[in-house]
Amino acid sequence: MDLHSLRQFVVVARLEHLSRAADELHVAQPSLSRTIARLESELGTPLFDRAGRLRLNDAGKLFRAHVERALGELDAGRRAVAEATGDGFGTVRLASETLLTLTGPLAAYKRAHPSVEVELHQMPAEEMARRLRAQDIDLCVASQPIPADGLEAVHLHTEAVWVATPLDHPLAGRPSVTVDELAGQPFVATRKGHWQRRLLDRLFAGRGLTPKIVCEGDEAGALADLISAGLGIGLVPALAQHTATSAPVAWIAVDSPDCRRTLTLLRCTDSHLSRAARLMRDTITNWDWTGGQPRGTS
User: Fold this and answer.
1) Which of 7, 115, 158, 188 is most buried (CB neighbours < 10 A)?
2) Cα separations (Å) of 242 from 100, 116, 182, 246, 248?
3) pLDDT of residue 133
4) 0.85 exceeded by pTM
């Protein structure tokens, strides 16, 4: 059971698809199949269900958690040694559901530390906790609650989430709107699991309603452009009003105290943060999210 085989297993477990995993790893699929079969033989149990589509089974999920932690510790050790013996700051690996939220602090960080290598990862919230504990990433900024077992969470910002409509929409010009008034309106939304979609579903479910979704996608940053194009209306956070890519839409407050999002910075309490990661943590926690600049500047 060598490191090479374990790293290959993690990729297959993530993709649950042998041919795609083989392409990503740049290996032949038969060779990858043999590697997985050897691991299962050594462990004495299958790690995947193979009825139809390849699926990680309960034993595979248990093994993956241990393998990811072990590989994460080895990688953390390598980076710690490199930082201790070198003159650089190291690398910081940052994840978020939507990277558009982080453009301000990221720009400030790179101006202050141009030699630092920054790795950005976009991933769903349910993956963040696992990747943090596996030490695949150093920090993540979440827009929805994440199970905090073994994680340190720092509140960053709470903001209103607005309804955005095309400029010629009947609701445009209204100062506020109720959830009931949004029933039957065509919504441009993110896919299930994303914080904006969960908020939309939760608001409607609280009124015994179901939103009418006419456009569903993965690019949260494209919502305002799709709304501006007239495809429908949608929920957009207040921060988006101040971005350089903000599309011409009408902004309407939602008359509900629950129509808000909270940004949280998370890290694994057991992980060693490189100097680069510590500096990134400080930049993000000291950022003025309302003013769009570091706190204490004007």
Assistant:
1) 188
2) 11, 27, 24, 7, 12
3) 84
4) no
* Residue found under tokens 């452009």: 225
Q: What is the pLDDT averaged over residues 135-149?
A: 86
Per-residue pLDDT tens over the stretch 210-254: 999 999 987 777 888 899 999 999 999 988 877 645 678 999 999
Hey, what amino acid is at 236? V
* Residue type (1 letter), 248: P
Question: Comparing C-alpha atoms, which of 127, 125, 128 is closest to residue 139?
Answer: 128
Q: Can you tell me the distance from the alpha carbon of 86 to that of 77, in angstroms, rounded to the nearest whole number?
A: 14
Q: Give CA separation, 100 vs 27, 37, 144, in Å.
A: 34, 42, 16
Token pair, residue 101, equals 């939220």
Instruction: Give the contacts of 243 (CB within 8 A, at least 6 positions apart).
Output: 100, 103
For residue 275, what pLDDT band results from cuts at 50, 70 and 90? confident
Please state, in angstroms and rounded to a whole number, the distance separating the CA atoms of residues 271 and 277.
11
